[in-house]
Amino acid sequence: MGNHSRFDVGRRVATAAGAHPVSPPLTRLLHRAAVVANYTVLTAWKSEAREEERQQEEEREEEEEEEEEERDACLWESK
User: Fold this and answer.
1) What is the pLDDT, as a whole number, of residue 4?
2) Is residue 70 in some structural domain?
3) How far apart are CA 10 and CA 28, in angstroms?
């Protein structure tokens, strides 16, 4: 394809597909917006996964504490 930039190639493909031609600056802006949106979604997903992991860890700790208390109570009753 020669010396065409990726934006020019994308514009040619979009135009051939029936889309209105888009200027290179607008194409760059749209590309940047897509990158930012992707990063934002990925970051939100990761923080959500971390929060879920924390909650599961807290639940495990609570269950362990309850089991320990039950064992202590059983030992106390058996004495």
Assistant:
1) 58
2) yes
3) 11
